[in-house]
Design a protein that fits this description.
The chain is of the alpha/beta class and 399 residues long. The chain contains 15 helices and 14 strands. Bound molecules: adenosine monophosphate. The site of adenosine monophosphate has 12 residues, from α10 and α12.
């Protein structure tokens, strides 16, 4: 069974075609700058690649490009769209409405649209993507929505309620929802396959956006992202948690609108904001090594905040069986894993320097034999998780 996984942003469409017999990726690509000056980058698992500019006025046009890419020309991997059994869509905000992945119908679309206010950049784009897919693939092709925060829906109210006047929760559903849930679920599912005895687990998804999640008996009890992916700790260009009064103070001083302030906190802060160098941690590391003090400060903040969150979650879990690293920064950065674990060593959580050094993107157990908790690197695969959910739901339709 072949599944097409789709991630639509407001001006982009990312796709991955996965053959579920063997869970093999066949092709992937990005249709970027949809509605602007269309740019496509695509590749196949066997190494064929293309990069070109093409006008894509909307998501429907982008889907026609995807159709062409996978069924015709140099990157052809299937003969016709009939070979695709279903489409799985990543949906950022499922609010409290969607606690698991669902087959898309009109009611589900209405539900996703009803959460637009909570994810104004994402949910409307997902609906556009779902409608466009229906237009190109036909109404009979099953579509499944996989929600980025569904895995976090097991959090207890003490973890997700913000101590504002309660009416704002009731009126606007303002609360912690978390993000990266599909990644955290993939990693914790894999960890459970490795060793079902791990009951108290912390997953560090450290990438361009970063979040840390505490998982007890397979269920999330807390996560560092909040109402939006801005919460938590220093990220590429996001500030993470700060004193809320600092936000209103800056808004007043700089005469900023809420939208301008949101852009500042999401796009101009974090590694980029503190270092003034880049949102990419590798650039910041190079600058710091060259003696750039603000770049060093950005790294110092990261290595201070991340272990503090891990330590807080060890308290929330009342112990720790396994600490897991995943996503770009911590799959590739051996020094990053080392730097974080160095701060945890006094608690008896010990990384094996030799196993860790130079290791990139390969599932590996990293702790020393005498460590009080196990440490793992498990590469994430959100697309595969979406494809698995889609397959499961589609198969259940025939029963
Ligand atoms: P992701 O969001 O998971 O795709 O992660 C992408 C981010 O990983 C990039 O923005 C880089 O900052 C980061 N990254 C990749 N390789 C390394 C590395 N070796 N050390 C530190 N950060 C890295």
């Amino acid at each position: 069974m072949k599944i097409l996984v789709i991630n639509c942003g407001s001006s982009s469409l990312k796709y991955q075609l996965i053959d579920m017999d063997g869970e093999k990726e066949l092709a992937k690509g990005l249709c970027d700058r949809v509605g602007i000056d269309g740019k496509i980058k695509a590749s196949t698992a066997d190494g064929r690649k293309v990069k070109f500019d093409v006008d894509m006025p909307d998501h429907t046009a982008a889907f026609y490009e995807v159709k062409k890419l996978i069924t015709e020309g140099d990157l052809k991997v299937i003969d016709s769209l009939d070979e695709i059994a279903a489409i799985g869509h990543r949906v950022v905000q499922g609010g409290a409405l969607f606690k698991e992945s669902v087959l898309v119908d009109e009611k589900v679309k209405e539900g996703i649209a009803s959460l637009n206010d909570l994810a104004p950049l994402h949910n409307p784009a997902h609906i556009q993507g779902i409608n466009a897919a229906q237009e190109v693939f036909g109404k009979d092709k099953p579509e499944v929505a996989v929600f980025d925060n569904a895995f976090h829906s097991t959090m207890p109210p003490k973890a997700y309620i913000y101590p504002f006047p309660y009416e704002y929760y009731e009126k606007y559903q303002v609360r912690k929802y978390g993000a990266h849930g599909t990644s955290h679920r993939y990693v914790s599912t894999r960890l459970n396959e490795i060793n079902p005895d791990y009951k108290k687990v912390i997953v560090c998804h450290l990438g361009n956006g970063s979040s840390i999640t505490a998982i007890k008996d397979g269920k999330v009890i807390d996560t560092s992202m909040g109402l939006t992916p801005l919460d938590g700790f220093i990220m590429g260009s996001r500030c993470g948690a700060v004193d809320p009064s600092a936000v209103t103070y800056i808004m007043e001083k700089e005469n900023m609108t809420p939208a301008e302030c949101s852009t500042m906190m999401n796009k101009k802060s974090g590694f980029l904001g503190v270092s003034g160098v880049s949102s990419d941690m590798r650039d910041v590391e190079i600058a710091a090594a060259d003696g750039n003090e603000r770049a060093q400060l950005a790294l110092d903040i990261f290595y201070y905040q991340v272990p503090k969150i891990i330590a807080g979650y060890i308290v929330a879990l009342q112990g720790l069986d396994a600490l897991v690293f995943t996503a770009g920064i911590s799959e590739n950065g051996a020094n990053v894993r080392q730097g974080i674990c160095d701060q945890l060593e006094f608690m008896g959580i010990k990384i094996d320097r030799e196993k860790n050094d130079g290791l990139r993107g390969k599932e590996t157990q990293l702790n020393t034999p005498d460590s009080k908790a196990d440490i793992w690197l498990i590469p994430t695969n959100e697309e595969l998780m979406i494809a698995r959910d889609t397959k499961r739901i589609v198969e259940s339709l025939g029963k």
